[in-house]
Amino acid sequence: MTKPNILAQVSAAIVGAAASVAPSIVEVASHRSLASGFIWRKGLIVTADEALSEEGEILVELANGTQSQASVVGRDPSTDIALLRVDDADAPLLVTSQEPIQAGALVVVASAANSAPLVSFGGALCVGPAWRSARGGKIDARIELGLRLPRRAEGGLAVSPEGAVLGMVVRGPRQRTFVIPSSTIERVASLLSKHGEVPRGYLGLGLHQVAVTGGGQGAIVMSVDPNGPGVAGGVQQGDVIVRWNGDAMPTVSSLAMALDSQSIGQIVSLAIRRAGADFETTVTIATRPGG
Fold first, then answer.
1. With contact defined as beta carbons under 8 Å apart, do 108 and 212 qualify?
2. 277-289 core/surface letters (b: 16 or more CB in 10 A; e: else)
3. Among 173, 197, 221, where does a domain finish?
4. Can you give the pTM of this predicted structure?
5. What is the pLDDT of residue 213?
6. What mean pLDDT do residues 1-26 have?
7. What's the pLDDT band for 1 if we cut at 50, 70, 90?
8. How far is Cα 165 from Cα 146, in angstroms, rounded to an integer?
9. Are residues 77 and 168 in the same domain?
10. What InterPro entries does this protein map onto (predicted)?
């Protein structure tokens, strides 16, 4: 009896995984930039924001060879997600993985280049909890792949050997390859489709980090938006915020990152020092004007 050829089985699994998402994969050409993308919903395509030019027309080639001009629905540099509209783009709804990926698991990358599939594979180099990008976007899981991603493959799909979509592949610093998880794409693309942008939280306060007498860090209020939520909470210019929800005051930069779309509507308690006296107030985080 002939023993099963393990390499042939692995090869077949890779081919099958790429074929399962092939109808959704597209090529994206913008000014001096070539990348991949995928059909997220009928008429809507997700691609990597970093791979999309800021100017000029955008052409999308579908899996069937049809080329169409795309328009930008919205972009979120903080999560590297851009949403495009191509009215004739349609494909079966992608099946996303419901199981957390494990480090060492095999991952297939399905992209497109030169009107043909572009396929590679590698292991999940490391897997970790949610994190924030350098631009403050919340990424629901940290997944780094042990493969080098060609620029034209950026915006393609990371797929399990069973054909379930793990997320979108993007290029990170020092030529590292990351996966933007499907849950992050679903959240951000939904906001982009509704608002054209990802709303950000807003305190209406201009803050500058300072050292607090007695130790620790605080934030001095340099300016107050007269129509913002801070003034409604009684915060004044010159106040020093020393605690945030009972905890040490975060740095101004980390606070700016934390004011994402999920923070909108939250009520936070602020411990404030004013002219040597301490008191507490509450502020309801609003939506930043103009996103």
1. no
2. eeeebebebbbbe
3. 197
4. 0.85
5. 82
6. 88
7. low
8. 17
9. yes
10. PDZ, PDZ_sf, Peptidase_S1_PA, Peptidase_S1C
DSSP state of 54: S
Total of domains in the chain = 2
CATH number at 253 reads 2.30.42.10
> Which residue range(s) make up the domain with 229?
201-287
Rounded mean pLDDT, 269-280: 93
**Please, what is the end-to-end C-alpha distance for the chain in angstroms?**
66
Q: What is the pLDDT of residue 98?
A: 80
Look at residue 87 and tell me whether its pLDDT is greater than 90.
yes
Q: Distance (Å, rounded) from C-alpha 190 to C-alpha 175?
A: 29
DSSP code for 50: G
Q: Phi and psi at residue 192, in whole multiples of 5°?
A: -65, -40
Residue ending a domain, among 197, 225, 250, is 197
| Closest residue by Cα to residue 203 from 268, 247, 279 | 268
Tell me the C-alpha distance between 78 and 92, whole Å: 28
Helix (H, G, I), strand (E, B) or coil at 71: strand
